[in-house]
Amino acid sequence: MNDASAHHNDGQALRAAAARALLPVIDAQGSLSALDDSAVLPRDRALFRALCYGVCRSLPRLEALAGELLRSPFKTRDRDVQALLLVGIYQLLYMRIPAHAAVGETAGAARLLGKAWATRVLNGCLRRLQREQSALQAKVDRDPCVALLHPAWLLKALRQAWPDDWREIAIANNAPGPMTLRINRRRVSREVYRERLLESGLESRICEFAPDGLTLETPCDVNALPGFADGEVSVQDEAAQLAVELLGPALAPRPGARVLDACCAPGGKTAHLLEAFDVDLTALDSDAQRLTRVTDTLDRLGLTARVERGDATQLEGWETDRFDAVLLDAPCSGSGVIRRHPDIKRLRRAEDIPALATLQGQLLDRLWQLLVPGGTLLYATCSIFPEENADQIKAFLARTPDARATTPADLAWGRPAGDGRQLLPREAGHDGFFYARLEKARA
């Protein structure tokens, strides 16, 4: 087999693999977090991930166009061919792949799915899209859900929550998030590390709000980051880095302060707290598999914490009034990080929000019992919905007489949101995030 034939076959295999990986996500039966690229050639893995994430990011438009291109929908047993068609449409609209490769190798990939009959169907659909791309897109984009690449329930929720900002939020959600680094201040200064990046050919800009943050102008593999294996740097969005700023006043003057990081996985905030403060930290999460990521992160950074598995709504046997500070990075809708997890658009439902709000309230009530009098609880979510954020804190304060909000009013970032602070996702900037700092009355 010559090189051209081998490359052709590899291209078909790559697209077939993407279709197989996408099918459970498209059918709302799986997520991109389980994406397995082990069957893809190492040189093709970046393209494989770009295809999978890109298709999820633009799914409403891709599916609308597929509906225009097909004479009739595929049968249920042929949903993998439907996924392959979406992969082909995505390449033609959004990627710098030669059209002949996007069409030919996508259509040919149907044979690898065991459905050679679909080769002709896919070839016809994609060639028609080449010819009529502008007209077809204009037609489907009359629907704002298609034009803004969001399901109807999500656009409605954004409009209700942020009537002046919803469109900008949707646009920010549709662009991949930047790669932002957190410099380990125990190992190196941000200024020195920025120079090291430049020496490695990586340009960066200083984060506007996070004192340990640098954002790369162009994302790269973490192994290309100088000092990554030695614990000098981690990848963490700027908004997530701000937890340390808010907990600082409670921890900086108190070496050895006892801190609980509840719902800690995958461990970014855990590590940042230990880099910034000399504290006695317990990292808690209910997911054993995700806890291994916490342990791996701490090992790489040379940091120490007690890592425990447990349900933070229960914690039977734990002593009350045990911790000087609690960080509750609560399970949430993820509505502020859709650009990093575009499958949220397909997997999340409107009815999920009340259930999440109930869980968040249970976590607040239980963890509040573990604070010493005068202790601080920092509530955080990567959500932009008031039900999970400002409304949640308002309800908690109403039922908790010994709690008061201490979220600073003069922060340079975000905007006031009830008794907390809300960041909205910004193109080329930080993710969407909410913080509220609460203090327990002294005895």
Top keywords for this entry?
443 residues; alpha/beta; N-utilizing Substance Protein B Homolog, Chain A; Alpha-Beta Plaits; Rossmann fold; 3 domains; 9-stranded mixed sheet; 4-stranded antiparallel sheet; 16 helices; 45% helix; 15% strand; EC 2.1.1.176; rRNA (cytosine-C5-)-methyltransferase activity; methyltransferase; RsmB/NOL1/NOP2-like_CS; RNA-binding
Explain this structure:
- There is one protein chain.
- By secondary structure, the protein is of the alpha/beta class.
- It folds into 3 domains: 3-143, NusB-like (N-utilizing Substance Protein B Homolog, Chain A), CATH 1.10.940; 180-235, 2-Layer Sandwich (Alpha-Beta Plaits); 238-440, Vaccinia Virus protein VP39 (Rossmann fold, 3-Layer(aba) Sandwich).
- It is 45% helix and 15% strand.
- It has 16 helices and 13 strands.
- It has helices at 3-26, 45-57, 59-69, 79-94, 99-112, 118-140, 144-147, 152-161, 166-173, 190-199, 238-251, 268-276, 288-301, 344-347, 352-368, 390-399; strands at residues 180-183, 204-206, 213-216, 233-235, 257-262, 279-285, 306-309, 323-329, 371-381, 403-405, 415-417, 420-423, 433-440.
- Strands 5, 6, 7, 8, 9, 10, 11, 12 and 13 form a 9-stranded mixed beta sheet that branches. The chain has a 4-stranded antiparallel beta sheet with strand order 2-3-1-4, with helices on one face.
- The longest helix has 24 residues, at 3-26.
- It starts with a helix and ends with a strand.
- It is an enzyme of class 2 (transferase).
- Specifically methylates the cytosine at position 967 (m5C967) of 16S rRNA.
- The active site is at residue 382.
- Pfam families: Methyltr_RsmB-F, NusB, RsmF-B_ferredox.
